[in-house]
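fold description:
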Amino acid sequence: MKLDRRLIAATAGALALGGALLVSPPLAGAHDTPVPHAEELSGAERHVIRDATRQFRDVDVALEAGYLPTDECAEAPGLGAMGYHFVNPSLIGDGLVDPARPEVLLYAPAPNGALRLVGVEYMVVDADQDLATDGDRPMLMDHAFEGPMPGHEPGMPVHYDLHAWVFTNNPSGNLAAWNPAISCPQG
């Protein structure tokens, strides 16, 4: 099942910043400069996130839990891909950072055409919407989020995010934004 990004935007529109939140995947070009992560999730931290989100390996369970699929597979030449973003609008804007409740699930196409869960993404809206300040930088298990960064689409707020590649290996690091081991379908 694929939903048009306008439908996702309409669903999420009232959630943050007076309805200005547009939920869609980062486009190629977003996060063009990889941020090196000297830190990595430990095995125990990966286990916590994997156990809490394991049920979302089944795309139907993710849909039932309120995650809405986007119709674009995010990929950046030379950096890798993030895959398809399944966004839970009810979790964006609540300001909570909970390893068991990622705002976004990341799916990559499998060779048979099915989608497989490869990671999760946590997203927190920047409180003051000022790219020059980061006093409200969120943390997940003592790991700092990237940002603040501008929205990746018109209307998307300044935010912080953190990717966690807990269901597949990422040669760039398990907290890197892009994964060179993931690719999007061509065509």
Observations:
- The chain has one domain: 5-13+40-164.
- The first helix runs from residue 5 to 12.
- The two ends are 19 Å apart (CA to CA).
